[in-house]
Amino acid sequence: MSNIYTPQQQRVLLITSLIVIAGFIIYGLSGYISAFLGAGILYVVLRPWFTALAIKRNWNRSLVTSILIVFSVVVIIMPFLTLSLLLIDRIQYYSQHTQDILNLVKKAEELTGYKITSQQNIQTLLRQGGTYASRLLPSLAGSTLDFIVILGLMLFTMYFMFVQQEAFQKGLQKYLPFKRDTQKELGESLKNNVNANVLGQALVSLVQGILTGLTLWIFGVPDSLFWGTVAFFMAFIPVLGTPIIWAPAGLIQLSQGNTAQGVGILVVGAVVIINIDNLLRIMLARRMGDIHPLITLAGIVLGVPIFGILGLVVGPLLLSYFIVLIQVFERENKKQEKEVAVAEGKVESAVEKSKHK
What we know:
Blueprint: H1 7-29, H2 33-56, H3 61-96, H4 98-112, H5 119-136, H6 144-163, H7 165-175, H8 180-218, H9 224-234, H10 243-255, H11 259-288, H12 293-307, H13 311-356
Helix pairs in contact: 2-3, 2-6, 3-5, 3-6, 4-10, 8-9, 8-11, 8-13, 9-10, 10-11, 12-13
């Protein structure tokens, strides 16, 4: 019995079916997209080690991958989770005990002579900040089961990305709708973004967080460990960064009559912490991928509301991919225009030859 659909209709229905099924899959896994993004990021970060041990030295792949998974959990995931939980706990505390912040605002207003905003607005902002931080950063308080599933899915995905690395890469090359050169450009962009916004930025943020925490501790600011942790996260944001932490701390010390401490915090922040930031960024940009600060800043604004803390990497990556694809589109258009011009030139020369004959 013959099929009622023509070959063209079958092709259209096949593509439609794939799109519909893919839509259901993406919708069903949308709550766990961070697991796959995290697995991809860790894959790029740890791949040089995997290559050195499993490919060049021929170590057992499963053993090397297991070691890398344990390393990522102990050295990357757990410390980051601890910092996140500490930060969330303190933000939620201040959002519920707004009087401490209001007292500091009053002192700042007395020092500057300007009214910053109403107390009601400050209380609202603090509550909103506590809620936003709870959504942004990974928290066991939200849903322990979801966190375990996301963590397990991320590590499980990363395991097979390493163990079946060749099959994974061949699959990408086969099914991505780009030419081989474009795929290489996208891969290079991914590598540069991960190096710049994960390895490089994490190192810069760690140094700045430690320097900020030490500076506040030396000059007698309470909760210096907490504010150093906040500075670590704030340092991921270009331009703003740690001045959000040490500048108000210095002004508050001045408002309390602690002139030496206040001036000391501001001087160390403006002379040491900012310059260390600029120096490290210049040094690391040459080694870990040079990403323009505007792309990083705009990418963070784009990515964080959508992907949470992973948006610090995914947002700039999306913008970089957009720029790469525009460049590829421009290059392909110019190439096509040249090919058309050459073809037209050949036709015109053939016509001229035929006329002379």
